[in-house]
Write a structure and sequence with these properties.
629 residues; alpha/beta; Glutaredoxin; 45% helix; globular
């Protein structure tokens, strides 16, 4: 019996080395087979599917009918000293590999590390790939992409911006779309008002559009027929347009045209141009937007006290006016490629948009691009007209109205029906061959409830240097228009490409703590301002008493007492503000300590327990197996 036990122990000891070798060989074979057979099989477990291409990108790749080459230039060795750049380049490479995986033989990826003074570096320079100067790296770092098709057409991304990480897929697909569809998009711009400054120069936004697109401006309307080669119709402001023009706008959408419409209840530039009769055309515009599933009231404007701008009043002093406001990042969708990179938009006397309660079966999606804060109100035009010059009185009149978030820019896609039962009489007489289309096909439309944002005075300042004038942006109005036009004028597949989520995750709990403390800080600041106004009122009373002939000694004594009381109150409020800030720091520090405890102590303990449990399970199974034998 003892000999048998010793033999089994000897066999068990002799099997250890071959078993380990067999496990190692099996592991290597498994990895080789996995790379050969399952290299295209991927599972994306990230929250925002960061490594999965959108349907629009896949559709673009499927359009490739001849080989397209992606030459990805990245200075791998030189960038090792910059971990942030190196990690971002890895994400870019992984996304490009996803394009390559879907493209098959039609899309071929080449990853190139251009060494200094090499042929690869000369080739990168010939494509226009720019070498980056990275603080941690002495040499130039190449980090760009060249897309080249079979007939040597080229679309170049000179460098990848670290700040554009969440727009990476959109930028790659946009450049691929430019390679597949190299024609310059044609834009038709329709407006009843002149889109120019008093000097006669076109607005800066129109000049920017001309740099990238072929722009045709229509001062009144499309009187003959719908433009056959138009990629996008921009309506700067429908107010003042004829019934014929509005009908052609409707038919353009019904027939599948893409539109960017700026509808405004109060277009100040129209009033300056002498266009005052806009009621009928705005009512017709409301009918068209209702057919699109959008509700627009031309008799109401948005008052936004939280983001109010200071404007020059008739008295000559600047004053915050809730009808004129600057929309910050918080009011712009960070999930949409049009608004994700914008920082602020200046708007004035804008209207409010809402969705129609009637569910349209043809609508494929409805998106909010720009919204107000929760403190915004919808105000009747008559109230604005009565207090237009006094922002404080205007807000005092409307602060009792219900507050809530208002939509300022929306996007809707899908098919629509015509808002007209038949062509108007003016259209029938002017264009005899017009054929009315009552039902539509799929189209994409963006509606903005303000047209004043297009004007130069809302977002640029003109400067002169050495006899030359140039425009300096003070808001992102121009970028918003360019993004919207660029997005709409692309292919249908490109429109559906979403903005990717961010790879870096924010500290949501910390941000919530900061927001709560800021709200408390704001309440304390408002209390301080209220007491300051009360003290100023008391000082005014003292001055009035002085004019009535009271004793100067008594007046000075009373003034000193009032000032002393205010100073004490101010010191007390400052103590409370410091206490709030200190409490915030304590909460964040307490949270940080808890996270450190979890990462440094609890996580390793849990890992050790799991490994110990696994080892115990293995020993139990091993003993049971040998006993059975």
């Amino acid at each position: 019996m003892a000999d048998q036990s010793g033999t089994m122990a000897q066999l068990r000891d002799n099997w250890h080395a071959p078993a380990l070798i067999a496990v190692a060989v099996s592991f290597i074979c498994f990895n080789l087979l996995n790379n050969l057979l399952f290299s295209r099989l991927r599972v994306d477990l990230t929250e925002h599917c960061l490594y999965t291409l959108s349907a629009g990108s896949r559709s673009l790749i499927e359009e490739i009918d001849s080989p397209v080459y992606f030459y990805f230039y990245f200075s791998e060795r030189a960038a090792r000293a910059s971990p942030g750049l190196h990690n971002y380049a890895r994400r870019v490479r992984e996304l490009l590999e996803e394009y390559d995986s879907i493209g098959g033989e039609q899309l071929r990826l080449r990853i190139i590390d251009p060494e200094p003074f090499s042929e690869e570096e000369e080739q990168a320079a010939s494509y226009g790939i720019q070498g980056l100067k990275v603080p941690e790296v002495n040499a130039s770092v190449y980090f760009g992409l060249a897309m080249v098709d079979s007939v040597d057409r080229q679309v170049i991304m000179p460098r990848f911006e670290l700040s554009g990480e969440h727009l990476l897929e959109y930028e790659l697909s946009r450049h691929l779309d430019q390679l597949l569809h190299p024609h310059k998009p044609v834009l038709d711009l329709l407006s009843a008002q002149p889109l120019q400054r008093e000097s006669g120069k076109e607005w800066a936004v129109v000049q920017q559009l001309r740099n990238k697109f072929k722009v045709r401006i229509h001062s009144e309307g499309l009187v003959d027929n719908l433009p056959a080669d138009s990629d996008l119709l921009i309506v700067a402001h429908p107010g003042g347009l004829s019934e014929q023009s509005l009908y052609f706008i409707d038919q353009y959408a019904v027939r599948g045209g893409k539109l960017l419409v700026f509808a405004d209840p109060v277009n100040e530039l129209s009033q300056i141009a002498g266009i005052t009769d806009e009621v009928e055309s705005l009512i017709a515009t409301r009918r068209i937007l209702n057919a699109w599933g959008i509700v627009f009231n031309e008799q109401q404007v948005v008052a936004e006290p939280a983001w109010a701008l200071s404007i020059q009043t008739s008295q000559g002093s600047p004053q915050r006016h809730p009808a004129y406001f600057s929309v910050p990042v918080a009011g712009m969708s960070q999930q949409d490629v049009i608004t994700a990179e914008l920082d602020s938009l200046n708007m004035g006397t804008a209207g409010g948009l809402s969705w129609s309660e009637e569910d349209s079966s043809g609508t494929t999606h409805r998106d909010e691009l720009i919204t107000t804060s929760a403190e915004a109100r919808l105000v009747e035009l008559r109230v604005l007209a009565a207090h237009h010059a006094d922002g404080k009185r205007f807000y005092d009149e409307v602060r009792s109205l219900p507050a809530g978030v208002q939509r300022l820019a929306v996007r809707v896609g899908g098919s629509v029906n015509s808002a007209f039962d038949a062509p108007p009489a003016s259209v029938s007489s002017a264009v005899e061959h017009i054929s009315h289309a009552p039902e539509g096909v799929v189209s994409e439309r963006i509606v903005v409830s303000d047209s004043d944002l297009l004007a130069d005075r809302f977002w640029v300042r003109e400067r002169r240097l050495l006899g030359h004038s140039f425009m300096t942006p003070i808001a992102a109005n121009g970028s918003f228009v360019l993004n919207a036009v660029d997005h709409l004028s692309g292919s249908a597949a490109l429109i559906s490409v979403r903005s990717r989520g961010r790879f870096s995750r924010p500290f949501l709990v910390v941000e919530a703590l900061r927001k709560r403390a800021d709200e408390q800080h704001r309440d304390q600041a408002e209390l301080l301002e209220t007491r300051l106004r009360e003290t100023e009122r008391k000082l005014a009373d003292i001055q009035r008493q002085a004019q009535e002939g009271e004793s100067r000694i008594g007046i000075n004594k009373q003034r000193r007492q009032t000032l002393r009381g205010f100073q004490q109150e101010r010191l007390q409020l400052r103590r409370e503000l410091r206490k709030v800030r200190h409490q915030l720091d304590q909460d964040i520090e307490r949270l940080g300590t808890s996270l450190k405890l979890i990462n440094i102590v609890l996580a390793p303990i849990l890992m050790v327990l799991l490994m110990w449990g696994g080892w115990q399970l293995y020993n139990w199974w091993h003993r049971r197996t040998w006993r059975a034998e």
